[in-house]
Amino acid sequence: MSAARPDRLVVVTGTGTDVGKTWWSAFLARALRARGITVAARKPVQSYSPADPVAALDASVLGGATGERPEVVCPTHRWLAEPLAPPMAAAALGLPPFTIADLVGELTWPPGTDVGLIEGAGGLRSPLAGDGDTHTLIEAVDPDDVLVVSDPALGVIHGVRLVVGALGCRRVTVVLNRFDADDPQQLASREWLVAHDGFTVVTAPEGLAANWA
Which residues contact residue 31 at a Cβ distance below 8 angstroms, ignoring those fewer than 6 apart? Predict the structure, then answer.
């Protein structure tokens, strides 16, 4: 990782795949930029279906939110057109294996970046490289904050507890994506996570952006 570390380095992970990490990261980036905060996003590696349009890829969505080119968000040699976990996708495509250190070494940031977002792939323990996952990446980059994105449906307490427990004493914010304030079950789950577990829980990017601003 380049020496020009952002003032606030944030890793975005989740309780699983398709919980909304990219959507939330993009909206958070827009909300921060609207407050005059300089934001950059990085996706160290992305895997996807060959049928997916380029505009829908994580690097494109994140780049659209931060004003960066997709190939800056994720180096093109880390674009893996195979819908598997990244190290598995690389193997299926006949590409050389790579390590967490390789991914970390490719992270660069523009000087003067206020907030840098690094988005993992899949859930916290989903394979990210041949020798590790997003948890390994977090240990390597030592971020200031970790965002744990979760679906708010039934089972959220179990999933969030597992991920936050694995992260130990790091500063964690729990994100409930697609939260419905009119759903009694979702309301009860949020209150339990706050009152019983003491987690910081947010449900809207604007609220977190305001806190960080």
Answer: 205, 206, 208, 209, 210
Strand partners, 173: 147, 200
Q: Residues 6 or more apart from 11 whose CB is under 8 A from it?
A: 118, 119, 120, 134, 137, 138, 141, 143, 145, 146, 147
Question: How large is the angle between the packed helices 156-167 and 134-141, nearest 10 degrees?
Answer: 40
**pLDDT at residue 3 above 80?**
no
Model confidence pLDDT, tens digit, residues 114-154? 999 999 999 999 999 999 999 999 999 999 999 999 999 99
Domains of the chain (ranges, CATH numbers): 11-212 (3.40.50.300)
Please list the active-site residues.
43
